[in-house]
Amino acid sequence: MAATPADASSSSSEAVVGGEKSNKMITLISSDGESFEATEEAAKMSVTIKHMIEDGCADDGIPLPNVPAKILSMVIEYCNKHAADADDTNKHVADPADADEDDDNNNNNASAGEKEDLKSFDASLVAVDQATLFDIILAANFLSIKGLLDLACQKVADDIKDKSVEEVREIFKIENDFTKEEEEAVRKENAWAFNE
Amino acid sequence: GSHFVPLLFRRPCSAPPSDAAAGADPGRPRGRHGGRAHAARASPRRQARDLRPLALLHPPHRPRPARLRRRSPLRPPPRPDDAVDRVSRLPDALLRGIVSLLPVKDAARTAALSRRWRGVWRSAPLVLADADLSPSPAASALSRVLGAHPGPFRCVHLTSSCTEESGHLLAPWLQLLAAKAVQELVLVSSWFSLDAVLPAAVFGMATLTRLHLRLWKFPDTAGLPPGPGVSFPNLRELGLCSVLMETRDLDFMLDSSPVLETLFIEGNLFTLRLRFVSQSLRCVQIIGSFLEEIFVVNAPRLERLINLEGWTPHGGCTKVKIGHAPKLQLLAYLQLDAGNHVLEVGNTIIKAGTRVSPRTMVSSVTVLALDVRFGVRNDAKMIPSLLRCFPNVETLHIKSGKCDLSTGKLNLKFWHDSGTVECVRSCVKRLIFHDFRGDRSELAFLKYFVETASVLKQVVILLSAGSTSAEEVHSKVAKFKRAGEISVALVTGCSDLQGRYKRGSEFPLGDFFFLLKFPSANY
Known about the structure:
The structure holds two protein chains of two kinds.
Chain A: H1 5-9, E1 25-29, E2 35-39, H2 40-43, H3 47-54, E3 62-63, H4 69-86, H5 112-125, H6 130-143, H7 146-160, H8 165-172, H9 180-189, H10 191-194
Parallel strand pairs in A: 1-3
Antiparallel strand pairs in A: 1-2
Chain B: E1 7-10, H1 92-99, H2 104-109, H3 115-118, H4 120-123, E2 126-129, H5 139-148, E3 153-162, H6 167-179, E4 184-189, E5 210-214, E6 237-241, H7 247-255, E7 262-266, E8 272-277, E9 283-287, E10 291-298, E11 304-308, E12 319-324, E13 330-335, E14 343-345, E15 348-350, E16 367-372, H8 377-380, H9 382-388, E17 395-400, H10 412-417, H11 422-426, E18 430-436, H12 440-452, E19 458-463, H13 470-478, E20 487-492, H14 497-501
Parallel strand pairs in B: 1-20, 2-3, 3-4, 4-5, 5-6, 6-7, 7-9, 8-10, 9-11, 10-12, 11-13, 12-14, 13-16, 16-17, 17-18, 18-19, 19-20
Antiparallel strand pairs in B: 14-15
């Protein structure tokens, strides 16, 4: 891990041995003023935070005005789990032939048991009420944590899949603001999608 | 005393377990309504929650940042039936992202949800699998969708639409896909006849990043102009599954794909000699195909060369020639056959007894797999010479091939007499023995290996179905010298390809080759 300019002068950093993982803790401050700590490695799962660390802005804690404490603690939990897992590398080089380019958290080196753990962790993380789920989406988007964003968006997609338009409106409280003519026009445009 | 810990696994060869239901972890606090409600926050100095070990409060000596608003100590649990439409308030980019995760019909229907949603599907890159269009085969619905969406097309999987009846639509579809900048395309023919010729329009899809073809006859590339207007400037992954093509067609594809990293060939029906000249290729995976020769002429970035489950006509075998491949790390399987040339390195054919020299070494390889019939003396005798060409092997896979007529068993003395093999002595850390039957020759080799390999840490023995029993093997292996210093795992019940190479096996996947699977739509 490259040393940032801040490392040398910061009193809160631990010794960073060249080439090895830093054990440095990063402080993240939620919108409602609570502080949380996470390892640098976990924190860097957020591209936004990663850039701030690399730019040396992270020493006094990183304020995250968009992320409330409840959500931030869940985000950190996700990052911890997935950073720890991604770190479980054996000596073999990460697979260049990875078919899942979109899968950031592709843990080639995890055993089946670990992968099951991770899957059930992910599932329970997003098994929350809508308000929380959308807060997670917004936070993951703001913090640029692709894996978490994909996970949460997939949950929303799963709730939409195989449902009629009326059912989706009901679930998400979407108000139908079409005029009758507009709605007819939309349904006609994509008639192939509506024949159930 | 021995630290030999026998481990017996019954490998489940059935489908992987379904996703655990939410709330699988009993240790997490669950609010009344199933949400992740926090417990009481009575005091400003909360104790760190032990369930979230690293989400600690900052140490007490640091000044607490000011709170922006007061919060009551007991937070009410969230109401799941809160009547706010949050989804529509998400920014466009996120809505598009969500819609593109849906099967195409559901995605298109979101346009009717509200005015906010009307344009979302069309403005998101199209993700389409024709399996989601009904009725199936759905040629007319497909034409309508391809026409309705303005593009770009991120991912299109046509697995049922390409029938003989819709054959006349294929070239127009491909042209439409090209016009709408398709990135990932899976094209499976349902003709099941050699008349299913892929239209030349496929070469017009310059936006492709991934292309997988199955059950086609490749168009003749001889008539195509090569050169500066390359056909596939963005193609990173190419899969050819039961595709009838000539060697020069494959050469054409490689020449036309300057950034191709992954090549996947399966079920190739006709003999081919593969030549790899590619500045970009990193992984080649060949399954169930017969190839006379695989010649890595010049592939400076090639890291993995995998040839699995190939079948060879009687008397044939696949020759692997390594030219310039300085980054080759994984090479699997070399099929040992004393009657044929199996390996050629830098213009030297490697046989039993070939003198080792730097020119004949491929020192970048750390994972090597050999397919050897222990019952054929001359085949097994090649092992030391071959291993000497790979001085830095850390993980060795040995697959025990069946042979009808055994020509004599090799005993321990043979192996010791064959001289030191440097990588065995000081490099190999992991040995994985596939299709182990418990024959004396196999056991002799195993004994030699375990007793000689001084840095060996782990042995995995995959037992061939219906041969010896794990207990028998255990008891024999336990008697080897050094058996106490290594971990030995025996795995039963995995004789099929899927069982062995399924992603997410019980062992770290570094021990097994990661297999590319023929892609299915990812939702």
